[in-house]
Amino acid sequence: NVVRRVLGHAKRGTKVIYVAGNHDEFLRPFIQYNIGFGLIEVVNQTEHVGADGKHYLVTHGDLFDGITRLAPWLSMLGDKAYDFILNFNTKYNWLRHRMGFGYFSLSQYLKGRVKKAVDFIFQFELNLAAYCRKRGFDGVICGHIHHAEIKDINGTIYMNDGDWVESCTALVEHMDGKWEIVTWTEEKKDESKTTN
């Protein structure tokens, strides 16, 4: 449904840019030849000029991750492990829900408990911010590490939208150029059911 809706907007003239990530390796060969898919442009990165005139690099972020670039086999293994954890987490949360408990993200818990993961996230953020400064951007909009955050890193605005699979987070730009992270929760799902 989401893809159908995006394609509908593209047909009506909305410019749609698909930023490829580490789960989209099959699309990367098309990027170098500037081949899109009909009305959708596929890129590794693009620029967004905010409502306040600031220039942001928009990238998935995997190209700044040494693991996915230097050891693709390790990245593929990580993808499989992540898929396994997501599948297990779905079953685990079904059981928690039946017992009256709220949602719990196992992968976020594991990432947060592992010091190396925290160090990796910090280095990832620093690498992206440094690259943006070097290229003259005011900030970066990315994903990849699934950790939603908006912060200043040495004068560069770093924004990560998190993910829509586990944490159900997204970035929203307001008309005045301010950004915020929104989170879809069970309460919001329940509210939308009652208001529709």
Beta-strand proportion: 15-25%
Report Rg.
Answer: 18 Å
Structural class: alpha/beta
Task: Give the overall pLDDT as a whole number.
Answer: 80
List the helices and strands in order: HEHEEEHHHHEEEEEH
Sequence of strands across the biggest β-sheet: 3-4-5-7-6
Helical content (DSSP H or I, runs of 4+):
40-55%
Strand count, sense and barrel status of the largest sheet are: 5 strands, mixed
> How many distinct helices?
7
Task: Please mark out the parts with pLDDT under 50 across 5 or more consecutive residues, or reply none.
Answer: none
Euclidean distance between termini CA atoms:
18 Å
Q: What's the number of extended β-strand segments?
A: 9
Kindly describe this structure.
- The protein has helices at residues 2-11, 28-32, 66-70, 72-98, 106-113, 115-135, 186-195, and strands spanning 16-19, 40-43, 45-49, 55-59, 139-142, 149-153, 156-160, 169-173, 179-183.
- With 196 residues, the protein is α/β, with parallel strands linked by helices.
- A five-stranded mixed sheet has the order 3-4-5-7-6, with helices on one face. A two-stranded parallel ribbon has the order 1-2. Strands 8-9 form a two-stranded antiparallel ribbon.
- A hairpin with a 5-residue loop joins β3 and β4 (55-59).
